[in-house]
Amino acid sequence: MRKLSFLLLLLFPVLAFSQKNKPDRKMQQALQDIVSRFNGTAGVYVQHLKTGAWAAIHADTIFPTASIVKVPLLVGLFNKIDKGELGYHQSLIYRDSAKYGGSGLMQFFKDSAATEVSVLAALMMSYSDNTTSLWNQRLAGGGVEVNRLMEQYGLKDTRVNSRTPGREDIWKIYGWGQTTPREMATLLIKIRRGEIISQDASERMYRLMCRGYYDETALSQIPPYVQAAHKTGSVNDSRSELVMVNAPHGDYVFYVGTKNNKDQRWEPDNEAIEMIRTISAYLWKHFEPRSKWTPRFRKDKF
């Protein structure tokens, strides 16, 4: 009996590792059912940081990042700050020549307006500001240097394509940036754990990611009093989202990537947006089954 107990004690770490590296079958099947109804190509990666439970659907397939590329750009910016080549509160002057349309606020600043690096970082992450994002890309040393950082952290497919020498052809396929669901989720996990640049830099980046304006997709399906770091990315044929939920029973991260979307409408009930909401709602209930909170998001109000 003692020999059997001793043998089981020796085998327990191996068995635990084996179980941890198997997908959560219930979650895997539920997500597969949701994704199978989507008219396009979708990929999902989910991981519960405390238990190790995970699920993956096309998790290693490359998807366009659209504005989610701003997470690697943030890492590149903080790399320069950490090295002392930039100051977080370093003063800058906005010029009209930097204006870029689309989302964001800085395009409406007056020429010669005073600003600073921290404002650029905050606008990029909170309002997905395109003008500040391109400015941050330059401050970070350009796409080549940001891509070198991604490779350093073991991310082989997460790359900045736009305005990056040598990536002109792949830019035509994926646009500004590219990633896989597993890799982008992994990057956020590393930030959460203080493993990107430094503990202080990771914590500041995480704070910035918890102040997003675009909260009507995945975030609409979790309680408003639960903190979540996130970033959305949207172009006509691709809508994606990265989320880390600081849930009561442990953090969980998920990335939903889409491409080749049939529904390209810019409406609240866009099919990809609805799928992301459905996945987010399912994951909240899966990881927090005792929660009595239910989503109240309405497309025609609030």
Describe this structure in words.
This protein is of the alpha+beta class. The protein has one domain: 3-Layer(aba) Sandwich (Beta-lactamase), CATH 3.40.710. Helix content is 40%, strand content 18%. It has helices at residues 2-20, 25-36, 70-82, 117-126, 130-139, 143-152, 168-174, 181-192, 199-209, 271-287, and strands spanning 41-48, 54-57, 63-64, 91-93, 114-116, 159-160, 177-179, 228-235, 238-247, 250-259. The strands form 3 sheets. The chain has a 5-stranded antiparallel sheet with strand order 2-1-10-9-8, with helices on both faces. A 3-stranded antiparallel sheet has the order 3-7-6. Helix 4 packs across helix 5 (130-139). It is globular. The relative contact order is 0.16. The model is unreliable at 4-19 (pLDDT under 50). It catalyses: a beta-lactam + H2O = a substituted beta-amino acid. Keywords: Hydrolase, Signal. This is Serine hydrolase. GO terms for molecular function: hydrolase activity. Residues 43-258 form the Beta-lactamase class A catalytic domain.
Question: What's the layout of helices and strands?
Answer:
Elements: H1 2-20, H2 25-36, E1 41-48, E2 54-57, E3 63-64, H3 70-82, E4 91-93, E5 114-116, H4 117-126, H5 130-139, H6 143-152, E6 159-160, H7 168-174, E7 177-179, H8 181-192, H9 199-209, E8 228-235, E9 238-247, E10 250-259, H10 271-287
Helix pairs in contact: 2-10, 3-5, 3-6, 4-5, 8-9
What's the CATH topology label? Answer: Beta-lactamase
In the sheet with the most strands, the strands line up as: 2-1-10-9-8
Portion in strands: 15-25%
List unreliable stretches of 5+ residues.
Answer: 4-19
Q: What is the CATH architecture term? A: 3-Layer(aba) Sandwich
Rounded to an integer in angstroms, the radius of gyration calculated over CA atoms is 20 Å
| Run of helices and strands | HHEEEHEEHHHEHEHHEEEH
The CATH fourth-level homologous superfamily: DD-peptidase/beta-lactamase superfamily
State the major sheet: 5 strands, antiparallel
Helix proportion range: 40-55%
How far apart the termini lie comes to 64 Å
Q: Specify the structural class.
A: alpha+beta
Task: Determine and state the CATH class.
Answer: Alpha Beta
Number of domains: 1
Q: Report the principal-axis shape.
A: globular
Summed up, the helix count is 10
Mean pLDDT across every amino acid position: 93
Number of strands: 10
